[in-house]
């Protein structure tokens, strides 16, 4: 099993999450990979999970029916949220709020086709007290096999 340098799924997800509509992409995704991007702001981690899951289903990144793909996405989201919240996946209950851009990327990062698809979720934005100006930058990445 060889991880192909030009197929770093996490790198693509992070770059997409940090990009804005004004940015020009300096990379091309490998063929047959799927992506979606969006924004979410909340004091409730459940709302963050729901927004990402809804976007991934709406854009056809994962299937709406069935459990396996949703489960893989959920674990990638939770890993990314853990990075954003520094291991304590709590927001409103500890008086924190987030404003995040997210990117979901699905594809096979390996040279061998039989390794199958993986999913990466990157979150980039701000976290802090629910008072404007009290936030700082944060980033998280989660990658899971499907």
From TrEMBL:
- Alphabetical UniProt keywords: Activator, Histidine metabolism, RNA-binding, Transcription, Transcription regulation
Q: Pfam families from the xrefs?
A: HutP
Oligomeric state and interaction partners are given as: Homohexamer.
HAMAP family annotated for this entry?
HutP
This chain's function reads: Antiterminator that binds to cis-acting regulatory sequences on the mRNA in the presence of histidine, thereby suppressing transcription termination and activating the hut operon for histidine utilization.
Family assignment?
Belongs to the HutP family.
Q: What is this protein called?
A: Hut operon positive regulatory protein
């Amino acid at each position: 099993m060889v991880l192909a340098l030009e197929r770093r799924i996490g790198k693509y997800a992070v770059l997409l999450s940090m990009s804005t509509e004004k940015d020009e992409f300096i990379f091309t995704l490998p063929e047959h990979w799927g992506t979606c991007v969006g924004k979410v702001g909340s004091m409730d981690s459940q709302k963050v999970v729901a927004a990402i899951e809804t976007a991934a289903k709406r854009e056809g990144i994962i299937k709406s029916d069935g459990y396996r793909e949703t489960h893989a996405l959920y674990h990638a989201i939770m890993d990314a949220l853990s990075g954003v919240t520094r291991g304590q996946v709590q927001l409103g209950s500890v008086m924190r709020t987030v404003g995040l851009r997210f990117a979901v990327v699905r594809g096979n990062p390996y040279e061998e086709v039989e390794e199958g698809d993986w999913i990466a979720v990157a979150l980039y934005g701000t976290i802090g007290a629910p008072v404007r100006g009290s936030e700082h930058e944060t980033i998280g990445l989660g990658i899971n096999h499907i």
